[in-house]
Amino acid sequence: MDPKLHQTILLSSFKLIPFIFIAVFLLSTPSASQLSSDFYLFSCPNVERLVRNTVESASALDSTIPGKLLRLLFHDCLIEGCDASVLIQGKGTERSDPANKSLGGFYVVDSAKELLEVLCPGTVSCADILVLAARDAVELTGGPSVAVPLGRRDGLVSSASNVRPNMVDTSFSVDELAQRFTSKGLSMDDLVVLSGAHTVGSSHCDAFSERFKQSSNGTMVPVDTSLEKGYAKQLAETCRAGASATTMVDNDPSTPSLFDNQYYVNLLANRGLLHSDSVLVTDARTRRTVEAFSESQDAFFMSWAESFVKLSIIDVKTGDDGEIRFSCSSVNG
Hints:
Belongs to the peroxidase family. Classical plant (class III) peroxidase subfamily. Belongs to the peroxidase family. Ascorbate peroxidase subfamily. It is found in: Secreted. By secondary structure, this protein is mainly alpha-helical. The chain folds into 2 domains: 3-168, Orthogonal Bundle (Peroxidase, domain 1); 174-309, Peroxidase, domain 2 (Orthogonal Bundle), CATH 1.10.420. It contains 12 helices and 4 strands; from the N terminus they run H-H-H-H-H-H-H-E-E-E-H-E-H-H-H-H. It has a two-stranded antiparallel sheet. The protein has a two-stranded antiparallel ribbon with strand order 2-3. Helix 1 packs across helix 2, helix 2 crosses helix 5 and helix 9 (262-268) packs across helix 11.
């Protein structure tokens, strides 16, 4: 990262004001029950404001940050739980797995952590920072404000071998998606709600390459007939043979920078980018919810707030489990 950019984020993030906590969550699982919205009320009262300022400053300089932070949280919570294990660098870690090579936004979490280590040393976990950053990314792009419980501790284990058995693949069917979500304590409705994260962000062309094939003259031809023809043509031109491996496509072709319910409108118009998006309208168990959200953004936002909290407390570590890292990219010691 450019040192000047890093310095700009750090300085502009140091705008601290008192934060008023607005909700206390009552959680059912033993470890999650130790989380609280006022966990840092006395030990680091400005933590939420500082993280928000960091995300806001980074997003002003790079509009792709909100989508990256949201994706980063998903890739963290679905593996070892929400314990910041995806942030750890090194050979054989989650971060080194090919499925995580395209993740970004790490430096935003690192920047917030550096500031917090100055103000509240050894107090705020990287896991909590990541949850707050993803939460703020949604609100900053027009989504709902969500009160999240805090008090997570950072994990000590980060293994690439845990990624594939737990991560959701873009080629999954509804049954495969449901199985993966259910194994994490999430429902079918949570699946549809949290898939709405694709209303922001972007994907590499290879994330949906199975929906096309290369013809003899080098052009890309849709093999997935469920795609709307005009949209399929647009994708084929963007991801034509010879396109850069880093070529990206907006997840939402209509309002890519806004967190809204357009994702669901797109699905019903057969303009879902990923196979795992499109299948949500072909299965009666998920289509009804897609239709409901396409008609009411308020309904989507209300459901998002609930499902996001459920995502954020998957297999959390509290009490004596894990640690509070000094640096998000490595365990202590």
